[in-house]
């Protein structure tokens, strides 16, 4: 099921919802479509174009947002999918202070790393190796990041997230390679909308 980016009336990104949920918002006039996929959705009486971005018609006050959950996907998004030590393609999660030496599994102690650096580093401290990181790991912040961290992506979202994120983060909105489409209808195929 495609996912739809939801913006507040103020254009602030709020989250990602299923296409079905987004269509209900649009049909109830609680949101308007800003970007269409061009895919027609058919109900019993009407056909509407499936949105990829909707904006709420009324401003909603967003309660305090808690800390971002630490997941592998979120960590790779924060570190741009690159090894923090050598800049190579990250394939693993490294604890800067090794867990065997009391390092915590927390945003300020985990980084994305390539297999080689992770293997070479093993359970040693950076100082033992003379290694340095380009920047100190920290919990991610920013509204765009909260959208990207969900793992859902659509290049059409980019202009709406640009004011809220870095280029590195937004690079994660690139189209998903075709072989990553797991089942479902092929792109462009009509989707049945049951009421
Ligand atoms: Zn590396």
UniProtKB/TrEMBL annotation:
GO molecular function list: endonuclease activity
Record keywords: Endonuclease, Hydrolase, Nuclease
Cell cycle as UniProt keyword: no
InterPro entries the record matches: HNH_5, HNH_nuc, NA-targeting_endonuclease
CDD domains: HNHc
Start and end residues of each HNH nuclease domain: 70-119
A UniProt-annotated Pfam family: HNH_5
Name the record gives this protein: HNH endonuclease
Organism name: Streptacidiphilus fuscans
């Amino acid at each position: 099921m495609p996912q739809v980016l939801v913006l507040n009336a103020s254009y602030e990104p709020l989250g990602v919802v299923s296409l079905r949920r987004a269509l209900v918002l649009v049909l109830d006039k609680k949101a308007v479509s800003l970007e269409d996929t061009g895919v027609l959705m058919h109900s019993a009486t009407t056909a509407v174009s499936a949105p990829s971005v909707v904006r709420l018609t009324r401003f909603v006050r967003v309660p305090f947002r808690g800390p971002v959950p630490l997941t592998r996907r979120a960590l790779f998004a924060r570190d741009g999918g690159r090894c923090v030590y050598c800049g190579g393609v990250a394939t693993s999660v490294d604890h800067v202070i090794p867990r065997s030496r009391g390092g915590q599994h927390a945003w300020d102690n985990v980084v994305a790393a390539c297999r080689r650096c992770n293997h070479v580093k093993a359970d040693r401290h950076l100082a033992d190796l003379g290694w340095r990181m380009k920047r100190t790991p920290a919990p991610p912040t920013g509204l765009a990041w909260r959208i990207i961290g969900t793992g859902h992506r659509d290049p059409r979202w980019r202009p709406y997230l640009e004011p809220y994120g870095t280029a590195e983060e937004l690079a994660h909105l690139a189209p998903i390679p075709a072989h990553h489409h797991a089942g479902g209808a092929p792109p462009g195929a009509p989707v049945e909308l049951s009421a």
